[in-house]
Amino acid sequence: MRIPLVWLIFTCAPLLADDDTFRERFADPATRNAALSELVPGTHAAYFHTALDHQLVARDAEFRKTLTAWKIAAERKENPISASGMTVLENRQLLIDYQKAPEASLAELIRRLDLEFNDTRPDAAAAAESLPTRLDPALITAAEFEKSAVQKYPQQPYTQFRGARLLRELDQVKSFDDAKIQWFLQHFDRADHPGVVPLIDRALGEDLVLSFTDHPLLIKLTSAQLEALLKLRPNLRSRGSFNLAYLSKIRPGAETDFARDLPAHAAHLARCRDFALTLPPAQNSLKAHILYHHRDLLKK
Hints:
This protein is an all-alpha fold. The protein folds into 3 domains: about 5-115, no CATH class; about 135-250, no CATH class; about 250-300. About 55% of the residues lie in helices and about 0% in strands. The chain has 16 helices and no strands. The chain has helices spanning about 5-10, 20-25, 30-35, 45-55, 60-75, 85-95, 100-115, 125-130, 140-150, 165-170, 180-185, 195-205, 225-230, 240-250, 260-275, 285-300. Helix 6 (about 85-95) packs antiparallel against helix 7 (about 100-115) and helix 15 runs antiparallel to helix 16. The radius of gyration is 45 Å and the shape is elongated.
């Protein structure tokens, strides 16, 4: 592992009188010796940079000799030299020596860092025997999932159903209780299912307030479904939202341009008129609106 020279200098070297100039000259091999000659022998800066110079060019014997002299100077009683940066160089040398003697380098790093390896390797063979090697097909069947849903939610297992299983549940709409009816109205979004009309019929029988122009499921109903509901619940003619939903569903699609196709427009208004004439007096404003537009078109 190589540590950039400039990083070592900026983080470990002591500050000099002209610090930046010295670092630049020391970092360049062409001017390094000249920079070293400016240092006062026996000082901390001289020991550190001399040792670093030997280490950078792999002069191992000179490097260790310089460190030994530095340690003696740092441990003397009178005027000891600072040992700052020595550990960095020693650790770096251990990493350099790892390529030649990995075991010795690792042992010394473990000793220096006071590492302990007390964990034992688990018995891989025994662990493998306790692990499953295949998936039991019986655990991923629809029946097993339904059983799990019943165990977790005994009162409302249907709240966990999805996909085809949820569609099959709506086949039992006649046996739904109030809570189940409300849940399906809130969460079911397939208006094309045959059980949707009976579901809405059950909800209307429970006097639930439903808007045919706002409810996410009801706004998806087709004109045929609305007519089926009307046969089951004739009093729906008194609901403004139902009438508006029905009138919007019987309107031709974008392929019919009323501004250009007056016969188609007249036929549509006639159909709206025929429906409006069946509405109770409470819907007279809607009837008047439809009759006005129908009569206005006939004048054209």
